[in-house]
């Protein structure tokens, strides 16, 4: 038996997809794009996409107190 084919992760998401994945509104994403904080690309006249790596950089997790203590900060 052969292993199932791996489906590659998408590199670009629509604003609606990104909003759903990251738990923010489309308006929040649009404001970040307008402010120059979140890079985006236009594909055609109305289609706006954002890269997953840019979203991950924008919405990186905030360390918890437990993470802080494990790193040796007191």
What do you see in this structure?
With 74 residues, this protein is α+β, with helices and mostly antiparallel strands. It is flat and about 50 Å long. It has a single domain (12-70), classed as Multidrug-efflux Transporter Regulator, Chain: A, Domain 2, CATH 1.10.1660.10. A hairpin with a 3-residue loop joins strand 2 (41-43) and strand 3. It is built from 4 helices and 3 strands. Helix 1 (15-22) packs across helix 2 (26-34). The protein has a 3-stranded antiparallel sheet. The protein is 41% helix and 15% strand.
Give a quick summary of the entry.
With 74 residues, the chain is an alpha+beta fold. Helix content is 41%, strand content 15%.
The CATH architecture term is Orthogonal Bundle
Overall radius of gyration = 17 Å
Q: Could you tell me the number of beta strands?
A: 3
Summarize the amount of helix as a percent range. 40-55%
What is the percentage of strand-forming residues? 5-15%
Total tally of structural domains: 1
| Span of the ends, CA to CA | 53 Å
What's the CATH first level? Mainly Alpha
Order of helices and strands: EHHEEHH
Look at the structure and give the mean pLDDT.
87
CATH topology: Multidrug-efflux Transporter Regulator, Chain: A, Domain 2
| Regions with little confidence, pLDDT below 50 for 5+ residues | none
């Amino acid at each position: 038996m052969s292993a199932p084919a791996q489906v590659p992760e998408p590199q670009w998401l629509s604003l609606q997809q990104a909003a759903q994945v990251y738990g923010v509104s489309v308006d929040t994403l649009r404001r970040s794009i307008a402010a120059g904080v979140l890079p985006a690309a236009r594909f055609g006249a109305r289609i706006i996409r954002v890269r997953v790596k840019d979203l991950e950089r924008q919405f990186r997790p905030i360390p918890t107190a437990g993470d802080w203590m494990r790193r040796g900060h007191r």
